[in-house]
Each structure stands twice: as C-alpha cells, then as structure tokens.
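Hey, I'm writing a tutorial for new members on how sequence and structure tokens pair up, and I'd like a real worked example in the thread rather than a made-up one. If someone can provide the structure for the chain below, I'll link this post from the tutorial.
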Amino acid sequence: MRQEYTITVYTENQIGLLNRIAIIFSRRKINIHSLNTSPSEVEGIHRFNIVIEETEDVVRQLSRQIEKQVEVLKVYFNTNEEIIWQEMALYKVSTDEIAEKVKVERLLREYGARVVAIRKDFTVFETTGQREETNRLIKILEPLGLIEFVRSARIAIIKDSKGFHEKVKEFEAREPSAEVVENEYLDKKEEVFTM
C-alpha cells in the first residue's frame, strides 16, 4: 500500500551528492514531494528530509541504494505516525483588503499566524504546522486578496530515536581492535582475481 514516507539521510556535505540522490528517484520515476537539507546535530554532517509517497518495499530499496553513496552515513525511513514534523508557510495579502475586511488579531489568534511584514501595499503572515493546517489559512485568505503563497519543505524528527549523534559518539568511543585479522583470500590470488 502506498503511503507518505519521510526518508532521513545523514551525509557528509559534498558537492554533487544532492544530484546523485535525486537521480536515484528520477530513474525509478518517483516524484519527490518535499526535500529539505540542513546541518544536523553533529558538526560537519548534514541531514536531508525527503518526502515521497510509495510502498514500504520501494522505500526500503531506495534507502539501501541511497546508503550505498560513499558520502552517506545513515538512512532512515518513517511513516508520518513515526515522526514529528512541521512546515512553514508565508502568505502575502493586500494590506487594504486585510485591514478592511478582517480583524487581523482574530485571524492571527485563530490560525496561530504572526505578521512578518506590513507595508502599504501588502502584509505577510507566517504560520507553521502540518500541511492541512497551513492549507486552511489559504482558504480564508483567498477571498481577501491572497497575492502570493509559499510553503517550506518538511522538517522532521524521528520519535523513537536517540539521534544520529549518539551513534557517532559510540563509533568514536570504540577502541581499534588489537587483533589483526588475516584476509582469507590473500593466499588465493590466482583463484580470486582471474580475468
């Protein structure tokens, strides 16, 4: 069954990686609904949040393929129930229309919005929430002269996770093994490396 998944990718910050990850999706003709990149809680490591609608099997295969990229450290995928997520939206409306027809304080209070900019010709509101919440304010503002609307990509935190930072700290705390492991194929060169 297809449903919305958020794929979280922890990576080194390398030029061209975003393009290589996007190609993985385009080859399979999978549409990305939302894509956000940002620094993570670990210095020098970036975090991608990619939202798609697919079956669990397809998402699992995609995650494995993304994880094969050299700069990718770890990939997680989660349903909407397994994450806490938000999007930010900006709404630009005519200042004359909004001042005449609506009590701005009531509108802001009711929809958890705040004014970001007020100019003679337009006012910009900002709100955060899930898509359904940000869409509700569009419906209210459309008849009042909505000039422009933009929504950010999803940002998400996994509920049942100690965070990637803990994994990095565990890895850094490990002592290198004193035991030398012999490569079992070293004495079989001709058998293994034949052309």
